[in-house]
Prior knowledge:
Elements: H1 2-17, E1 23-27, E2 43-46, E3 54-55, E4 74-76, E5 82-90, E6 94-105, E7 111-117, E8 126-134, E9 140-145, E10 152-153, E11 163-171, E12 180-186, E13 200-203, E14 213-218, E15 228-237, H2 240-243, H3 247-254, E16 261-264, E17 272-276, E18 285-290, E19 295-299, E20 303-306, E21 319-327, E22 330-338
Amino acid sequence: MSKIITVILAITAFFVISANAQLLFEENFSYTAGTNLTANGWTAHSASGTNPIKVHTFGLTFPGYASSGIGLSARVDSTGEDVNRTFTAQTAGTIYTAFMIRVEKAKQPGDYFFHLSTSPLSSAEYFARIHVKSDASNNLAFGIGKRHTDTTFTNFNYAVNTTYLLVVKYTVVSGDNNDQLSLFVFNTSAPATEPATPTVGPISPASADPANIGSVALRQGQAANAPTVIIDGIRVGTTWSVTIPTGLEENISRLSTNPSLKISPNPFTNYTEISYNGNLQNFKNIKIYDATGNLVKTLSEANTIWDGRDNSNNLLAPGIYFIQVEAENEKKISKITLLR
């Protein structure tokens, strides 16, 4: 019983800590492949209708990232329409923006393909511009700049046709000409906490700060410089943990009542039956996590029985667990309590 109380207290503490954290924006491109982004909630702000940005035919995945493997993606090519979506404008604090990216092609001069702006978007205020460029051997370097001319790049440590997770950190600093920017580039997994040292930054270019941060934008630059990239899973939040939720935080943030996912009995002692009656097309698996977010069991059947053991057939300790069903374009999560 003490273990269960401890877990409940931990979850309560999480909600208290997260009370002021906000997920401001999430885009998983769960639309019909081949349709224009402007038909799916995005607004064109430049070269409207010229080589429009479309929903791509597949989505991206990245280990540990909450928006991994959901929906499809957007393919941003060189020259053409630029689009944006707005969220609640932020005038103070820190704004985190994360997205998965796969670079198909980059040029040696390089150019930016993603940026933040105001709400509503102002063509005079493009900030946190994310660049990519290649060297003579086709290795990639990512960069971040407040404006177009103050970009700071990583080393050429990255490869084409590889999925990375990029996180942009924008901190509003009191006064003018002093907001701070940082860029994190991850190639293995999404970290649960913010690393002490970013890949680039923090930088604080001496140029005018925006009136607010309230939109994300995808850009298709000039053919001579612009890259071709696939972008997926855009998330904007006011804390690292709400923007890049992993483990317990991801499970709680997605916890909901799901009629298509039935668990009986719950709580259970010896075994429970798990039944997923939703869309079985492209059903992947059922995953069971403990309260700290560790994966303890993977089940391959949509209708199955779980006896409270982990993947090594060890009996698990009593407590709260989270059951996640993955099927086409969706994840269903419910809470379950194991008794002994």
